[in-house]
Amino acid sequence: DLVQCYYCGLLLVNWEENDEVWQQHAMHNPKCVYVLLYKGAQFIENVKNEFNEIRNNRSNSNEQVHRCKTE
User: Fold this and answer.
1) Each residue's pLDDT tens digit, 10-64
2) Helices and strands: H and E segment counts in the chain
3) According to CATH, what is the number of the domain 2-67?
4) What GO cellular component is one of the record's annotations (predicted)?
């Protein structure tokens, strides 16, 4: 499963069942003019914010795990 944007050349592989093509494209290349024209700047901003929130939540979870003490 390989998809390429013919506008910016982005290659996306290893799709998972719930992946959405526009979200993945905006996340991996938010500067693609095709995504900007088709979906809009607000969509790209929303995708970036959602990705950052997920990443921050994972980071916070990892920090909590590392702080746990075992006796």
Assistant:
1) 999 999 999 999 999 999 999 999 999 999 999 999 999 998 888 888 776 655 5
2) 3, 2
3) 1.10.1170.10
4) nucleus
Q: Are 1 and 13 in contact (CB under 8 A)?
A: yes
pLDDT number for residue 22: 96
Residues 26 and 39: beta-carbon distance below 8 Å: yes
The two three-digit tokens of residue 53, written as one number: 């929130």
Rounded Cα distance, 51 and 34, in Å: 20
- From the number of C-beta atoms within 10 Å of its C-beta (0-12, 13-18, 19+), residue 36 rates as middle
- What is the residue type of 64? Q
- Phi/psi at 3 (5° precision): -130, 135
In whole angstroms, what is the distance from residue 19 CA to residue 29 CA? 15
Cα distances (angstroms) measured from residue 63 to each of 2, 60, 69: 34, 5, 12
